[in-house]
Amino acid sequence: MDESAERFWDPAESTVFQECPPAVAAARESLASTGVHLMPAATVKAHFATGQEEWTRFAKHWEHLSHDRYASERGTCRLRRYGKFSLTPSTGGLTQLPDTPFVQPDRSNPLYVDVDRHFDPLTDAFAADPLLSSVVTLLGHVACVLDSAACWDREGASVPGRRQGRR
């Protein structure tokens, strides 16, 4: 393998392959040209070669979210958990990092800027779910079109729940 070529990790196959998978190539092109990309569910399922059973298991993690007390203070009932990971896209190395508070970046939502928000951590079962590893790895491969970091160490692995309406 040419060491200068970009390498992709396929967690489902536990192998490294050099060619950019079609789902990743399409997402990168869209993200680079328009700044957004919505990957259809059928494309994600085909990319991971997973069946409905794996997705049903994965979806059950959303049944274990906790109430977001910060949103409740503003009259909104929202469910979530929070976690942070480090990803090395070239090897697929994914490491869950210690729990830390979430601090809203000042360029996004001004409601919580400079507020250390403490959310319940991801459940052990969710953090260890192989589908989560696959999804985070896919996001790392796509996001590198914006910033080709050798290692992603970012907040953003939060699992926001659906809003349940205003009180």
Count of helical stretches = 6
Helix content: 25-40%
The unreliable regions are 1-5, 156-167
For the CA atoms, what is the radius of gyration?
A: 17 Å
Structural class determined from secondary elements = alpha+beta
Taken in chain order, the helices and strands follow as EEHHHEHEEEEEHHEE
What's the arrangement of strands in the largest beta sheet?
3-4-10
Q: How would the global form be characterised? A: globular
Largest sheet: 3 strands, antiparallel
Mean pLDDT across all residues, rounded? 80
Number of strands: 10
Query: In percent terms, what proportion of residues is strand?
Result: 15-25%
How far do the termini sit from each other?
A: 58 Å
How would you characterize the overall build of this protein?
With 167 residues, this protein is α+β, with helices and mostly antiparallel strands. 31% of the residues lie in helices and 23% in strands. It contains six helices and ten strands; from the N terminus they run E-E-H-H-H-E-H-E-E-E-E-E-H-H-E-E. It has helices spanning 22-34, 41-48, 52-59, 69-72, 124-127, 130-143, and strands at residues 8-10, 15-17, 66-67, 76-81, 84-88, 93-96, 102-103, 116-117, 152-155, 159-166. A hairpin with a 4-residue loop joins strand 5 (84-88) and strand 6 (93-96). Helix 1 crosses helix 6. It starts with 7 loop residues before the first strand and ends with a strand.
